[in-house]
Amino acid sequence: QVQLVESGGGLVQTGDSLRLSCAASGRTLSSHIMGWFRRAPGKEREFVASIRWSGDSTYSTESMKGRFTISRDNAKNTVNLQMTSLKPEDTAVYYCATTAPGTNIWSNWGQGTQVTVSS
After folding, report:
1. For residues 39 and 44, what is the distance between their CA atoms, to the nearest angstrom?
2. Which residues, 6+ apart, have CB-to-CB distance to 12 below 8 Å?
3. How far apart are CA 14 and CA 102, in angstroms?
4. Is residue 22 a contact partner of residue 96, using CB atoms and an 8 Å limit?
5. Which of 60, 65, 67, 102 has its Cα between 20 and 30 A from that of 46?
6. What's the pLDDT tens digit per position in 56-100?
7. What whole-number distance in Å separates Cα of residue 78 and Cα of residue 67?
8. How many angstroms separate the CA atoms of 107 and 119, rounded?
């Protein structure tokens, strides 16, 4: 079982930057994709970005790709999300997640960290 703990959320202003971190424990995640999702108020949870052990990353939209950067430290079992040029529509609870080993099925979730961007 993989435990995930997010940190780094907070209240920022439009245009600010924020770095989210997620620490994983329980096993080595060499066969797991790690990623970030978010849920805005009144909306469904949506995919933000993911990254493989190799460092290959995927982003949900071009806008996110241009403003967000996902990275992982395999030695430390951590995944980070650097967010820049934040907008009020980025306000959401951000969740760290991993897939089941060797699959694309998201099976482990953190508790989430709140990010609020004021206008």
Report:
1. 6
2. 18, 86, 115, 116, 117, 118
3. 38
4. yes
5. 102
6. 999 998 888 899 999 999 999 999 999 999 999 999 999 999 999
7. 20
8. 34
Per-residue pLDDT of 42-55, as tens digits, reads: 999 999 999 999 99
Distance CA 16, CA 22 (A): 20
The values of phi and psi at residue 8, to 5°, are 105, -5
Say if residues 20 and 81 touch (Cβ distance below 8 Å): yes
Instruction: Determine phi and psi for 88, rounding to 5 degrees.
Output: -55, -30
Sign of CA pseudo-dihedral 94, 55, 67, 10: positive
What's the sign of the alpha-carbon dihedral 106, 112, 113, 117?
positive
12: Cα separation from own chain's centroid: 17
- Choose among 31, 114, 17, 29: nearest CA to 78: 29
Q: What token pair was written down for 77? A: 């079992």
